[in-house]
Please model this.
Amino acid sequence: MAKLIHKATQFSLQTKVFLTFLALLLFVLGCFIVYVNVIVVRPLKLKTEQDTLVTATKVREQVDLYVEQQNQMSQRILSSKNIFVAMDKSSSAHSNYERLKQIRIIKDIMFQAIGPSMNIKDISIYDNHGVLLTSYLGSGNPPAILNTMMESSQIGRDWTESGFVLLRQDDTISFVRTINDQNGKVYGYLSIQMEQAYIQNLTEGITAGDVYILNTQGEQMTGSEAGVTFANWTKPASDEGLDMDKDDNYITHSTSPSTGWITYIITPKKSVLGSIHSVQTMSILLITALMLVSFVYIFLSTRNLLLPIRKLRGQIWRMNYSNMNLKVDETPKNNDLLLLNEAFQDLMERLQQSIDREKSALHEEVKARNSALQAQIAPHFIHNVLYLISIAAQEGKTKVVSDMCKHLSDSLRYIVSSPYAHVTLAEELQHTRHYLSLVQQKYEEDLEWDICADELANEIRLPRLVIQPFVENCIEHAFANTAPPWHIRITVKQYNGLWALEIKDNGEGFPPDKIQEILTNIQTSGTGMNQTADRATALGNMGMINSVNRLKLMYNNRLFINIFNNHAEEQHGATIQIIGSLTKDFY
Model:
């Protein structure tokens, strides 16, 4: 009986494996939930609250900018000394004619300071007794007595007649300041009437919450709903801050240093944290779906994993004395490690075959690019050479025709012979001499060239046809906007185990951005292996870059290319330097 109970309480191997994976899955789930709340949700919440505070600052800055514009407008009006004279004469005028004359002068000053464009309601001028003297437009219906407007506001009653104050009366906000000279003598008052709706429009569209702007006395200057007041309002202790009200609304405030206005933004909590709640909800749904899928996957995986063991156990239980000859499958059905090893060996063999094929394909591609470059050189200039030969023949210049035919024959023989074999720098320079001799027949005395090289050129190995693209670039582009004679100088130098090939012309040089473009193309093109199949290899397009790439293939990046414009005195044009190592190990 005890054996039966012990046997009944034991778990199967499948159950044990399933419970083990399930515990691991629950642990990962707990770590994921902690990660989402600590690493994702909390910083996102702080950032969202900070963005809400920044929004309040932006709203306040919009309003401050508008008020500052009115302040600058008032200063432009008061910057005219004539206004003090006109105000003084108008207050002491003995006749209406003299008073109207001074008022007209004041209006002219206002027009010159304001200009034709306005984003205000009106501008009014009061005398030193607070009596309306004149209005710029006369459409704002300003109060005839300034005190009636000042006494309607708490901040107006506290004004000490210095600086400016902002007062609200119905749908108008007035910018009021004294008109006084440097000695402090008060001549009157200037009032700029602004549309409360215009200021309210400045605060809309920036935030999803309701915006209210109060002055230092708690009077509402503008807001999302006109007339809304804050019950038991007290001035904030800090200039900027974020609080929560009893309805869980976020209240951010920002105090203006210039006007003293306090901008409040009341945003519902769900509007501020809506995206965060969405992240939490999506995370819960995602991890729940992942758990369900994982449960099913673990169950099926453990069952399939242990199926051969259960089959073997069933065969063992079926064996008895009467069927001792029961054949047991000797081939392991679940020897995954052996199968994996065999598959890995097979993968390695196939991978090696793929690498060999890829290396062979790249080698053939490089050979094809070299052949394409060489094959395109002949059509590039042979037509012009034959044309020049025909002209020289018509003119009876047999010596010129003979020389040109010899140069052309030597050039074509050099081009088509052994395209994959490397040549010496001396052979490459000799081909360049043939090419320049042919080109000179076209330009005659306008083109001058010289090639300076010593015996070192016989020791330097190069790919075939790498110098001609640089020389051809000088002829086709460098001298386009330069008066002849044109000069090309090719020099070979040696120092510190390096050789340097320098090609210099006296043309107009490269634009600065073109030099950077060429060097960038050379750097990004690598050795030409990664070039797309449809990239042109013609000399006029990619000849210089292809030449450099072919040199890199030979020198394993032990190569330096420098392109610069000549900046010495009385020197023009550009210089291209190709510097390589003389060490054989680098080839």
User: Anything to note?
Assistant: The two ends are 86 Å apart (CA to CA). The chain has 15 helices and 17 strands. Residues 1-8, 529-541 have pLDDT under 50 and may be disordered.
